[in-house]
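Lab notes, practical 5.
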Amino acid sequence: MSRPDHTPVLVGMGTASRHEEDFRQALEPMDLMLEAVQAAGRDSGSAETLRGLQFITVPRGRWTYADPAGEIARIVGAEAATTVLSTPGVLQQSLIGDACARIARGDIHTALVTGSDAGYRLLRAQIAGEEASERTQHGEPDIYLKPKDELRHAVEKRSGLQMPVGLYAILESAFRARKGWAIGEHRDRLAALYAQFSAVAAANPHAWQTGAVTAPAIRDTSARNPMQAFPYTRYHCSTWNVDQAGALLLCSASRAEALGIPRSQWVYPVVSTESNHMVAVSARKDLSQCPGARITGEAALKHAGLRVDEIDLVDLYSCFPVAVELYAEGLGLLPDGRLTLTGGMAFAGGPYNNYFIQSTCRAIELLRAGTGRHALLSCVSGVVTKQAFSLWSTQRPVRPFTHLDFSDEVAVAMPALDVLEDFSGSATVAGYTVLHGRGKTPRGVVLVDTRDGRRAMATTESPTLVEAMESRELVGAGVHICDNELIVID
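Output from the prediction step:
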């Protein structure tokens, strides 16, 4: 008798999307997820694939379900499946990599990774002055995953950086300064990059926004494109008010053969690499680089025995431009329109804590269509706090699938600084931004290096200082701070 083949293969993928103006007609997130799951089952070509599920894992969106994987298990007839729920701060690729690793070890033969968010439904309900209800689930998942540390430092929250856009903009300023780009040149580069992404989205049948946006419309502020956190306008930011879902159906090669799933449906996960080392933005010694992107990216390529120029399809996580820039630099790629398969989160849609499943679905679709043989996808959690890559191929891998964690190596390459809760004195700007909000006074935020090698954060609403922060390069400039307030720029 031949030995069972535990090689993991993806045999089904499904997506779902709704764009209902009346939130009452929109699907709630659980139903959106179920639609994607059923589509993945049909895509596999076997009614038995879903019934044979042994492992179901879901990343949490902006919903309150207690055990969505459990509901899926009951509906598809896989009640014995182990159910998993993860919170934001857990890499979506960790869920995919873990499912593939369990199959490769022979622990299970079939797994499902699925997720959804219905942000547009929430938005339309908010505009109507009502609440978009959800059904109540009872019970709890078998496995509950959450990050071990906080994603944000207390000084970041105090300074008004509750949303990630401001923190990403601070990283962007440090990246710009290291590259030596003038502010105007930098803004032109960002606009050109995202105009290319928009063109890709216009050709993606699953994209939320169907029309291409020009570079000037992305760069310059308007009623539809207000400044969010300098230099990021709305078109630079992930569009998370979308109703989208995705599902990935995986099994062992032996199981796929037993179910009669044709080889044309198979796509092989080759390797999963990640780092879960967590350092808050304000504590990162070098704001302009991301060692985890380089280390995990190089490791994925090394395991596959491929050079980066042999990768046909690339999708870099695109919540904000600096995530694309840092990962492209780590891989040795130019930041351009070839770095997205979907069109990016600003245009294709960035469902909360679920985009990576959507981008993986698109990669599988393109691989099956013969667009390429190998696809490399990056994943981000937090403010590029955690990093991951997955590599997929239409060809059977030479080496067995592996799920690798490089947290220890990244910790060595990413030293952290002490961050002061309160500061007064002279310091040097490490990174900065100006926060904008509807009906709010623009607020400048500076992250500084103190003279004794620590970090501090200060804010200002002075129109004169805010204007300077948006017109000249301040990274490396001297400043004076009094009780966490920016007073003087040298």
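Observations recorded by the TA: The chain has two domains: 8-150+240-413, 425-489. Residues 8-150+240-413 form a domain with the Peroxisomal Thiolase; Chain A, domain 1 fold (CATH 3.40.47.10).
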